[in-house]
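Give me structure tokens for this 256-residue protein.
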Amino acid sequence: MGNCGSRECVDQPVPLMSAKRGVVDRYRDQLFDLRPDSAVREVCLVCSVDRVVDGDTLVVEYAVSNPDMDISVAVRELAYEVTRSLEGGRRRESPVRGGAASPSAVAAKRLATYSQRKLFHLGYRVCRVDDGRATYQLRRVMCVRLRSMDAPEKHDAFGAESKQVLQALLPRGTSIQLWITDFDVYGRVVADVIRLHDRLHINRAMLISGWAWHYAAYDGRAEVAQLERLARSARLGIWAHGDENTPPWQSRRSPR
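Here you go.
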């Protein structure tokens, strides 16, 4: 699909919607260049997509210059293996064995391990900056729940397809903006997701392409409900074979 973080993708059709582009083209004013509504509390700094969890959840990251926490050792002083561990988003400890190093080296390693653990559990990671030097950058990682919509659960029909559509819309590294409205009971940020290079409203794109339900219990806006109705009438996505699909909020209440 190419690098959809570049301007080259501006005129490309929304992935997996091209078969019935008339629906998308007709309602471009509801998908592109929108402004935050009154429920938006904060327009977040630019983030980049780390990974897609499912059809309505992302993990994103952004650079941090002065994290609001007490870091016992500066990032530039972290041991190389600790930095590489954080860079991969994992916490990996390497205990120092007795007699393997001087007392000062043991103390430094323990301090670095403590700092690594603290960074990891508070949602930070270290990323290598591609500037031709051995430079690292502290980045914050957070989970984002897309507002207004509810996609099929992973184990349900169309769960995998819904995730694939979102991955196609937001490949890893895509620059996005978050319009944050709330935090859910799991601590995830609830937000509208805007793809920066073309200002596509991702939440609405998922709805109008038929890969998610309108989550009316948490968003009663008529214009958002209309996007689901358009997808149903055009038999797009999960509606291709009719209206018999079980909504994810009902699926979550059912015993496995």
